Amino acid sequence: MSGDEEAPPEIHHYENRGEVPWDIQNYWCQRYDLFSKYDEGVWLTDDAWFGVTPEPVATKIAGHIARAAPSERKVLVDAFAGAGGNSIAFARSGHWKRVYAIEKDPVVLRCAQHNAKVYGVADKITWFLGDCFEIIKSQLKDLAPYSVLFASPPWGGPGYRGASVFDLRTMEPYSLNTLYTEFSLFTSYVVLYLPRTSDLNQLAKLVKDDQPAPVMHYCMRGASKALCVFYGGFQLQLS
Ligand code: MGP
Q1: pTM to 2 decimals?
Q2: Ligand 1 pocket, 195 CB below 6 A?
Q3: Which family does the similarity line name (predicted)?
């Protein structure tokens, strides 16, 4: 698969630890957790490694959203597609009529498109290059009544681990309030993938009284990787 397409110079498929920059070696060691098909030619930029949702977590989230969303919501918008981990899992779930994936870095978008081909789901995803807030308002607005929005935003880098409670008000470049306000204009069904140490009081402030917003930790080998908050009255069934 990797031989079918020429990768631009910013994209790598590292095969040996010696080739991998030191600050991403930790992630490279977990490459099969991130992409079980890594050896089939998965592409990443060096910056994209930090934000990839591990494949078992992405699959679990995709299953939960599919089961919890109302039946008329058959479109999934992935606002920060990155290298494609979540979009691929949504497409593989087979639940959505269409997955719309937005990424503003053109090189990272190429990785996502390529990785979707590796996983055999490229034909199930429509890709957009650009700012998610703009694209949602301009190109996706007609889909709003049928859509669920998932966002795995940047958390300001791996430094998020330094805080025992992560302040979502100062998250860079988009705060929790910015994300929630912008996405809620588009759809009331919003799922956010956030640091496992996120300040739960800050998440709770956005909850509407008649619509509880479950928070789910997603774990691997007994440790939380991240949490999702489900805003908008999802009927979350645990399994
Ligand atoms: P981590 O804490 O950097 O790694 O990221 P890990 O493997 O828990 O560290 P260790 O202490 O166990 O070695 C954990 C998960 O958080 C990653 O797998 C990503 O899914 C997610 N993640 C990390 N960052 C920095 C981001 C980010 O900026 N945005 C998003 N959306 N996810 C991130």
Answers
A1: 0.96
A2: no
A3: Belongs to the methyltransferase superfamily. Trimethylguanosine synthase family.
Q: Does domain 52-231 have CATH number 3.40.50.150?
A: yes
The DSSP symbol for 162 reads: G
Strand order across the 190-194 sheet: 125-129, 98-103, 75-78, 147-151, 190-194, 223-231, 215-220
DSSP 164-187: SSB-TTS-SSS-HHHHHHHHHHH-
Question: What is the mean pLDDT for each group of 10 consecutive residues in the chain (239 residues)?
Answer: 72 94 95 98 95 97 97 97 98 98 97 98 98 98 97 89 94 97 97 98 92 94 97 83
Would you say the CB of residue 56 lies under 6 angstroms from ligand 1? no
CB 172 within 8 A of CB 156: yes
Q: Where are the domains of the chain?
A: 11-50, 52-231
Angular region, 29: left φ>0, alpha ψ -120 to 50, beta rest: alpha
Sign of the CA dihedral with 111 first, then 191, 234, and 71 last: negative
Which of the 8 DSSP states describes residue 54? Answer: P
Pocket test for ligand 1, best of 25, 53, 132, 220 (most atoms within 8 A of CB): 53
